[in-house]
Amino acid sequence: MKTKRSERLVDMTHYLLENPHTLIPLTLFSKKYESAKSSISEDLAIVKRTFSERGIGILETVPGAAGGVKYIPKMNRKDIKNFIADLIEELNHSKRLLPGGYVYLSDLMGDPKWLRRIGRAIASQYMETEIDSVMTVATKGVPVAQSVAFYLDVPLVIVSRDSKVTEGSTVSINYVSDSSFARVGKMELSRRSLNTDSKVLIVDDFIKGGGTINGMMSLVEEFDSEVVGATVIAENIYKGKRSTSDYTALLKVDSVNSDDRTIAISEGDFYSKNM
């Protein structure tokens, strides 16, 4: 049934938002709405302009017989800057201070609104990078990594610290934990979770000494694959030398005072390095 332009625009926008990074031929929309390709092209021009002006993302047009349109859910510089400022304001409270100088993030990990914004911001950093999988360790950082994987439209790979029979054969490594006692930990990944020659993005919630991220990097090497980037939400204070410096952080914990329970958080190097 032929539809009105207003209806087409709403339905078309919804379809694009639900199918990021997917090349959609104009014939699909033309048949769906029983409209000429010229009318569909005009509609898409409106959507493209609105997406750009509102910071919703980029609508790429691919010319040719096999072409179409592709929605890239990339945040613009201004929106990312504002988002990081909002995140700092949300976390810069003494009530979030935990023993050991950690910052309480669990409520954000369970809030869909924050998860969407965090995931989209991190994914925006890697929109132009070839990525096959997003990797994280089985902790509270999983929801963030899952959100990043959604916006990049790639699978999520979760590294565990103990194998289960349902995972089949696994690859395991030993790594030095972030603890001041330099304890040796173990992490494992099912052989079926990651293909060889994969391009992997590592995402985690926190970094202190860098042992967990360095361990995941070593695990990726065991699969003859490549780490193309690593990003965390917050970088904690650490007096020693971190196991790795090859990462970006949305936020940085500048100071923690356990006596008067004050905490100071500022913008990390995520924006300055990549935006």
TrEMBL record:
Q: How does it assemble?
A: Homodimer.
Q: What is the lineage of its organism?
A: Bacteria, Bacillati, Bacillota, Bacilli, Lactobacillales
- Phosphoribosyltransferase domain boundaries: 115-253
Q: Which domain of life is it from?
A: Bacteria
Q: Which family does it belong to?
A: Belongs to the purine/pyrimidine phosphoribosyltransferase family. PurR subfamily.
Which Gene3D superfamilies does the annotation name? 3.40.50.2020, Winged helix-like DNA-binding domain superfamily/Winged helix DNA-binding domain
Matching entries from PANTHER family are given as: HYPOXANTHINE/GUANINE PHOSPHORIBOSYLTRANSFERASE (PTHR43864), PUR OPERON REPRESSOR (PTHR43864:SF2)
What Pfam families does its record include? Pribosyltran (PF00156), PuR_N (PF09182)
Name of the protein in question: Purine operon repressor, PurR
Tell me where in this chain the Bacterial purine repressor N-terminal domain is found: 4-73
Keyword line:
DNA-binding, Transcription, Transcription regulation
Question: Is Transcription regulation among the key words of this record?
Answer: yes
| GO BP, sorted A to Z | negative regulation of DNA-templated transcription; negative regulation of purine nucleobase metabolic process
Q: Which GO terms describe its molecular function?
A: DNA binding
